[in-house]
Amino acid sequence: MATQVTATARRGSTFLRIAIALQTLTIFLQAVSAGLLLTSSYGETLHSAGARVMYGASMLYVLVAVLAWKPGGGSARPVRHASGFLVLASAQVVLGIAHVPSLHLPLGVLMFGLSVLALARR
């Protein structure tokens, strides 16, 4: 029984690490597409599509965190972190749609830094 719980926890941790890595990558790609937004005609399309992918990656992070936490009965900390990222991603989308770059850009930098930190901690 203990071996099965350990294997389940290890698998959940691996999936959690993959979800965080995916989220980190999508946030980084958003920074790249933001640069293209300023320098090319197709940058807006890429940034808009990337926003949807980044938001989906944040939702996936929440889902994986819940699935990793629930069966093992471990700490709910990853769920709180993932939920926090989803709140930040929601704010980021709202600020982007409202064209408020004075808050949108620093929030994107903060999200990338926090995502790298979360990845390093896993």
Describe this structure in words.
The chain has four helices and no strands. By secondary structure, the chain is mainly α.
Shape: elongated
How many runs of DSSP E, i.e. beta strands?
Answer: 0
Q: How many strands, which pairing sense, and closed or not: the largest β-sheet?
A: none
Number of helices: 4
Radius of gyration: 16 Å
Runs in which pLDDT lies below 50 for 5 or more consecutive residues are none
Question: What's the end-to-end separation, in Å?
Answer: 25 Å
Integer average pLDDT: 90
Q: Provide the succession of SSEs.
A: HHHH
How much helical structure, as a percent, in the residues? over 70%
Q: Structural class, from secondary structure content?
A: mainly alpha
Task: Please indicate the percent range of residues in DSSP E strands (runs of 2 or more).
Answer: under 5%
Draw up the topology in text.
Blueprint: H1 2-39, H2 43-72, H3 77-97, H4 101-121
Characteristic terms for this protein:
122 residues; mainly alpha; elongated
TL;DR of this structure?
The chain has helices spanning 2-39, 43-72, 77-97, 101-121. The protein has 122 residues and is mostly helical.
